Amino acid sequence: MGRYERQTCLPDVGLAGQKHLETAHILVVGAGGLGCAALPYLVAAGLGRVSLVDGDEVSLSNLHRQVLYKETDINKPKVECAARHLRAINNHCEISSHYLNLTPKNVSALCDNVDLVLDCTDNFAVSYVLSDYCYRESIPLVSASVLGFNGYVGGFCQQSPSLRAIFPELPQRAQNCSSAGVMGPAVGTLGSIQAQFALNILLQLQPSPLGQLMSIDLRNLRQSSFRFDMAVEPSFEDTLHFIDFSDIHKDDWIVDLRAVDLQTGTKRSEAENGNSDPIIQFVTLDEFRQQKPRPKSEQRAVIACKTGLTAWRAARILQQYWQGEINLIAMGEKPLKLP
Fold first, then answer.
1. pLDDT tens-place string over residues 188-229
2. Range 178-185, long-range pairs (CB < 8 A, 24+ positions)
3. Taking a C-beta distance cutoff of 8 angstroms, is the pair 155, 130 a contact?
């Protein structure tokens, strides 16, 4: 036990706590900046098993904040590089990697038999899919978000409220690290706090991080924290849910808000996406707001975009004049073709 003696000497850990960590299995979704900060501490602490999920590759612009990677990792899958570096930190930790994106379709399989989930993504849809699943299955979820100099870490689900209870609506103006920028140490700080939240939960320390949200502003060197144990879950009817593209029905009313190709600036059409029958409507959010399209009364509305944010906004517009079922899809850059 010499490897862990500096933490086992803590009364809050001890040999019994260390044994508990060695039997724990956590899922880390996102091997970007937050994951790169949290993962080395979790693996070094002696966790028994860590599963990594990420469908992205390392790029040069990642390296200022994703400090687990090296220049030689560029253009390689993040999960494979991360697993290799983490095994070099602690070869007693069993590490499995999944080079794919988490979706509503695979969330159940990926979360199977895990004791805790870390949401280290930069994707609204993935965060809500994880929260919905963890809340339903009573799995503790530690979720974080960071932008610029600011961010938060929260402990959700299991016996505590979900992410939706604190953030029932997406922000009207939302950006990500790619569009708005981020400071590397801010990401590292939030990721490290995520790791500590996870260890405290696994060790059953009190007060529990579940039901706690901590915010940090490293531009002005401030932090705050509050508990949300009594936060009310939104009703199912008031929430918007994400589905997998394979769950589309042939009779659905489908809108793809990625109507403009960001690389070429040209308008997408049904034909170029492989659809000879214009079942899918390609419009921008502004066109959706102006034209106010609507499904037939018996149809289900399915609205797609890249990250889920624009689809969420369009869904709220549609709800103002149509009362049917609405589902959302975050497609990334993949064309939306009917199965």
1. 999 999 999 999 999 999 999 999 999 999 999 999 999 999
2. 178/122, 180/147, 180/148, 181/148, 182/33, 182/65, 182/146, 182/147, 182/148, 183/65, 183/148, 183/149, 183/218, 184/33, 184/64, 184/65, 184/67, 185/218
3. no
Are the beta carbons of 141 and 61 closer than 8 angstroms? no
- 80-135, pLDDT tens digit by residue? 999 999 999 999 999 999 999 999 999 999 999 999 999 999 888 999 999 999 99
In the block, residue with structure tokens 């790619």: 178
Q: What are phi and psi of 112, to 5 degrees?
A: -65, 125
When pLDDT is averaged across residues 301-313 and rounded to a whole number, the result is 91
Residue 239 has pLDDT above 60, yes or no: yes
Domains of the chain: 2-227 (3.40.50.720), 240-330 (3.40.250.10)
